[in-house]
Structure formats: structure tokens, C-alpha cells
Design goal:
single chain, 160 residues, alpha/beta, two-stranded parallel ribbon, elongated
């Protein structure tokens, strides 16, 4: 459905000469996330704050790149006022393993929760890392909020 939406958007751009924008968003997190939306950051934070075990799939070696919401909004803002019409990746190119994320969430929450390992789903990607070369070159954009800082802000909101 995402690819189809991009194709339709580009078709409207070409045929009707509309000024369109396409953002490819990668693993955004931050305050106001829904607690039970199935994404790893709110899952781990909720589990840690409730004193429940944190569930890691596989051995936790798969990587993800987490982009704080403020950085994403800045990237979208810059794209909106650019002349760029082709897709632009907005995300954080710095990878962390799921196990690194677990340890950081436990540290920042002060939780004594245990970590349990479950079978890795077959369709779970081993790596997610955006190439933000185009965003850097055309928008002079890159994420600036370190994962630890963004998690502290997110955890604070979840506590409230």
C-alpha cells in the first residue's frame, strides 16, 4: 500500500503538474505514542515501567534505527518547502540492536524487569537502516537527537 501511494502521488505529479512530496519514514518514536501499538519502543517502555518482563524476539541482534519525532518533523518541514518531488528517506542512519535498546530502556526507567527471549518471527527483518544521503544533500537535514535523550523524553511522557 505504501508503494502504491507513492506511485499514485508521482503519477499526479507528472500528469497534473502538482507539487507533491513523498516522505519515507523510518522507526519514529517519542512522546504521545500509543501504548499498545505493537512497536518496540512503547512496548519496552510500558513493560519496564510496569515491572513486566521485556520480550525480545530471537537473540536481539537484529538492528533498528530510531528517529526522534522532533527530528522527523524538522525533516518533513524542510521537504515541504523544497522543490524536491521524488521520495526522500527520513530516519536515523545509526543502528542499534534490539538488545542495546532493551538495556537502555531498563537503565533509563530504573526497572528491574527481566528480559525474556521468544522465537523470532520469519518475516522480522534483520536490519533496518535508512539511507538519508538525499535528505542530507537536498534538505541539509540529519537527525540530531541522540537515542538516549529521546528515550528519556519519551519515558518521562509515558510516566505522566
Amino acid at each position: 500500500s505504501k508503494r502504491f501511494a507513492e506511485a499514485i502521488t508521482m503519477a499526479y505529479h507528472r500528469v497534473h503538474k502538482l507539487n507533491t512530496k513523498i516522505v519515507r519514514i523510518f522507526n519514529t518514536y517519542g512522546p504521545r505514542m500509543r501504548h499498545y501499538d505493537g512497536r518496540v519502543v512503547p512496548n519496552f517502555i510500558d513493560q519496564a515501567l510496569a515491572g513486566k518482563a521485556l520480550t525480545v524476539y530471537g537473540k536481539g541482534r537484529q538492528t533498528r534505527s530510531f528517529c526522534y519525532i522532533d527530528d522527523l518533523v524538522e525533516g518533513i518541514f524542510r521537504l515541504m518547502f523544497s522543490d524536491q518531488n521524488s521520495p526522500v528517506n527520513l530516519g536515523n542512519p545509526h543502528e542499534f540492536t534490539i538488545l542495546q535498546l532493551v538495556k537502555l530502556v531498563l537503565k533509563l526507567t530504573g526497572s528491574k524487569s527481566k528480559v525474556i527471549f521468544s522465537k523470532l518471527p520469519q518475516d522480522d527483518p534483520q536490519q533496518r537502516q535508512p539511507d538519508i544521503t538525499k535528505a542530507h544533500k537536498l534538505l541539509d537535514w540529519e537527525p540530531i537527537v541522540p537515542l538516549e535523550d529521546g528515550l528519556e523524553r519519551t519515558i518521562s511522557w509515558f510516566r505522566g
